[in-house]
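Suppose a colleague, Dr. K., hands you the sequence of a protein chain of 370 amino acids and asks what its three-dimensional shape might be. Before reaching for any lab equipment, you can write down a predicted structure in token form. Begin with the sequence itself:
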Amino acid sequence: MAAPSLALQSLTLSHFRSHKRTVLETDGRPVAIYGANGAGKTNILEAISMLSPGRGLRGAKVDELVRSQEAVGWKVSGVLQSLSQVHEVETSFDGTGSRKVLIDEKTASQAALGRIGRVVWLVPVMDRLWVEGADGRRRFLDRMAMSFHPSHAEASLTYEKAMRERNRMLKDGVRDPSWYSAVEAQMAKAGAVIHKNRLEALEMLAAAQEQADTAFPAAECALVHAEGIEMPASDEDLAMAFADSRPRDLMAGRTLVGPHRADLEAVYSAKGVAARKCSTGEQKALLVSLILANGRALAAEFGAPPIYLLDEVAAHLDADRRAALYDEICALGAQAWMTGTGPELFEDLGDRAMRLDVTEHAGVSSVAVV
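The predicted structure, expressed as tokens, is then:
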């Protein structure tokens, strides 16, 4: 297995969910984490996800991450090997205000975390990605787009803020075009970037799947929009679409065109069957295929595969595909943090992985290196 050039060398959790204080040292291998349900395994993955832009793998608010009945805030820190450099990274919440980020002891933005490290995750709630609402599929696609373009997070925040203002005016029945022009210009500029990043991400994923020798089924993905409306490619055209849609939007009280109305469709290539009609196992295999493709594409584009966070990854994967997943992660040279209920789920990894046994007592998680 090639040594990863993007990996956490150490990780410290302080007052983060069930972890009062947990300190881990790694050697670059994948990390297999097992223990009973509720022991605190996923909390480790969530902590790592906070070392990337956004609200982490569970989308929690910062005050929801503090240990129960404690008001001291929380902190996650680590030493990150990123290509030829090593960085000290830290994110924290002191109980008031907003989340803070430090890189090499200097205040930084969340977006800066995305420039030095890339984190990709797969969690159980995604198992129903293909059969539930479009919101989840957009988030899934946007996380992949962000892995290629860290500035995607900033464009998304700008768009959402401007759209909230536009929606407020629509609900208030504002009809003066001059009130809309500035906010629609902001939305159009950010929206065009979002659309471009999403398309580029899908192109890179398609190329990575086509070139791979993998045990997982390829997924043909496409970006579609509500009601079959074609998404304008340029910010000028998108601004015009917002202006043209004002009468309809006023009736609805919300914005009905734009990248927030997009959806991700996928087809099981070999069978020509839409992902939403596939079996549960096939749907999971398609998700795994996409995140592996994400890693291969990042290895070529960024110079290293991402750090993978794979929560209960064995669910809905048979033994052969589970072993194939481990083989592909190791061949890719990725540091993957994986959880499961028992050590038997990781037997196929052999000595290619570290093992952590997580237990919980009186609401406090403990971690032992096995």
